Amino acid sequence: MASVRIREAKEGDCGDILRLIRELAEFENLSHQVKISEEGPCLVGYGIYCFIYSTWKGRTIYLEDIYVMPEYRGQGIGSKIIKKVAEVALDKGCSQFRLAVLDWNQRAMDLYKALGAQDLTEAEGWHFFCFEGEATRKLAGK
Amino acid sequence: MASVRIREAKEGDCGDILRLIRELAEFENLSHQVKISEEGPCLVGYGIYCFIYSTWKGRTIYLEDIYVMPEYRGQGIGSKIIKKVAEVALDKGCSQFRLAVLDWNQRAMDLYKALGAQDLTEAEGWHFFCFEGEATRKLAGK
Question: Is B102 in contact with A125 (Cβ distance < 8 A)?
Fold first, then answer.
């Protein structure tokens, strides 16, 4: 495989990241949910993370999305991105590292488990709930 | 029911919030996972939220936990806390409001659905994955 470098995103990457986000949406059959627009040129994968708070464990890192272009899969790039996020987690004082995966994406689930993750939906019964925009506005009485 | 006020937490609430966190852990049968200590005196419920990022929808609010003491349940306090979080979400420019719930907590699931939330684990197959401390350190090679 060609040499791949895992690095933090920089401003000039925006166009490329948008392209990958659209590819991810297609892969997840959720293209209709994408609300962004713009064009641009060449990264082969990305991970988007943010910091959340676990009531019992404190500062936690949350990997919102990870994506690798189809022609670059099977080369360990996804694992490298995940390892990089784990490094950031420890650097920032997070012991816990959470992420979400679609249950039909067996390849991703197998990878995360092989890397040491636990499926908390399976093990403890956690379900994701979401209020979309209209429901949020209704809730807030706006 | 006695009059209940939904308000932002302040510094002096810490002891009380810790007490509620421990009660929540007992309710969820996850007391062994609580890593905090300290004592204190009188709130009857809380919600802990933080801000995350949805790749497709942008700024999003995430309700990490919500808890109401057993003797105060059935009075609409949980709904009021959720509505307050929805107000904060809109004030901060978040259209999406996410939370997680244990699948055996039917009362909570029914409430969230009645308020307009969608169960994304059921509808789209999202599973929660987590690397705990040891797994995170192993991933990062530390």
Answer: yes
Residue of A60, A129, A132 for testing the chain B interface, max B β-carbons within 10 Å: A129
Residue A2 lies in a domain: no
Split into its structural domains, chain B has a count of 1
In-domain check, residue B2 = no
Is residue A85 in a domain? yes
Q: How many residues does chain B have?
A: 142
Give how far Cα B86 sits from Cα of B49, B91, B93, B103, Å.
11, 9, 11, 23
Q: What is the pTM (predicted TM-score) of this model?
A: 0.75
Give A97-112 pLDDT, tens digit per residue.
999 999 999 999 999 9
User: Which residue is it, tokens 């919102």?
Assistant: A64
Task: Find the domain containing A79 and state its range.
Answer: 11-114
CATH code of the domain in which A102 resides:
3.40.630.30
- Say if residues B27 and B53 touch (Cβ distance below 8 Å): no
Compute the count of residue pairs across chains A and B with CB atoms less than 8 Å apart. 222
| B25 three-class SS | helix
Contacts of B25 in chain A (CB under 8 A): 56
